Give the backbone structure.
Amino acid sequence: MTGRYWNPILETLPREELRALQLRKFKRIFKWAYENSKFHRALYDQAGVVPEDIRSFEDIHALPKVEKSMMRDIQRKNPFPYGDALCVPLEEVTEFRQTSGTTGQPVYQPDTWQDWEWWAESWCFILWAQGYRPTDRVFIPFGYNVFVAFWAGHYGAEKLGCEVVPGGVLDTKARILKIQELKATAMMATPTYVLGMADTARNKMGIDPASLSINKLTCAGEPGAGIPTTKKRIEEAWGAKVFDHAGATEIGAWSFECEDQPHGMHVNEGLFLVEIEDLETGKIIEEPGRRGKMIITALDRQAQPCVRFDSKDIIEWDPDPCSCGRTFRLIKGGVVGRSDDITKVKGVLLAPSAIEEVVRGIRGLGDEFEVVVDKVGDVDCIALKVELVPGTESLREEIEGQLVDQLRNKTNLRYNLSFHEYETLPRYEVKAKRFKDLRKAH
Amino acid sequence: MSEIDLQEMIQKVLSLKDMAEDINGLSKDFPAVWRNIHRVMASIKMLEINTVDLTQNK
């Protein structure tokens, strides 16, 4: 099995055929949701739309969006606990997962077995594109629990034929030893965690992570693998290729970086329809190079459909096709932020990922940092805490100069910098919380 | 890679689907068959997504 594509026909379909397929599939899932979910029917009835009204992408763009807050409102009611968006009898639900609740009450996600097969299928597109093959031994260092995280990655890797090693309840040191013992060739985890693992291996166990047998890493859960400086740090630490992936509990595994590493991710347009909405005007952006927020539809998901879901992810279309030959469009630089993370400081729009890109690009700074935005009187202030890597203390002045210059260039803002002893800033195992905005607390 | 005969594949997938649906209908009082065919049908749906759905004439 040496082919480049998981589905050689779908992944290279001419654009017009791909768009026609998306339109057909959108009509089908919209009809399914309309006919089987009281929530969706009420939403569309209120907008005066019936399935027969959808004939074009313009018709789709005009449909109401679904917000996470709407899902919260209808859940924890009968059919318990999912409420009126459930499209199948409760006894057909075989999987429960929930969102992390970072932005409020968690949303529950039911899936049928068919949906679970679909999750695994969508991961097969990702993993195959990243070079996973049945000869791979894949280590998954994640606490298998109510969050979907790498569950479907596990099932996808199995389906593809890989040997999967679940690194569930092992601690970081035990996971590293298991990777070493089994000569695992691939791994899936958050960027934060793989950097932390490398640090533990190197500084606490005397093991160079690059000497282990991992040759590819799939990172998800945070934008890190799409931030060039973070990606470089991970690749150098592990001596492995790092691939970005973005997915979500309510959506599915919708995007992936391929083996050609085009500094962006393909949208799996065979399984998902992505629209980009201008943050100011609400109009759909078709042209490349303009950022907006992603509105997404999972074209085949049944139990709790995802139709025009407002993901809040900030993305932009890449103007260029990928050298890999896939006709699935690329989003440039991956997910560059979230509309609810991008905040105005002193009147300037600030994306936390821009700070990460600077910090991770400076040799001598540790992987961890913390940003705290607060008000002093009426003035916004940003405190940036960083760590110096042991042995670089004498270079502090030089590093500080680089940091100030690059932050000013990249973000157009001034920071109150503080240098902290190595390993004193918080470490995270899954999703990091490095950005704190305390202005709302006043 | 050898040439892919999508139409031939689609015919076989649809036959498989018919067969699975027949078994499903016969097995409601036979959990071991019913639940296994349920899983097979989910896999067949993935075959449909990868083949049948791609044709224009649906």
About this structure: Chain A has eleven helices and 20 strands. The mean pLDDT of chain A is 94. The radius of gyration of chain A is 22 Å. Residues 154 and 426 of chain A are 28 Å apart (CA to CA).
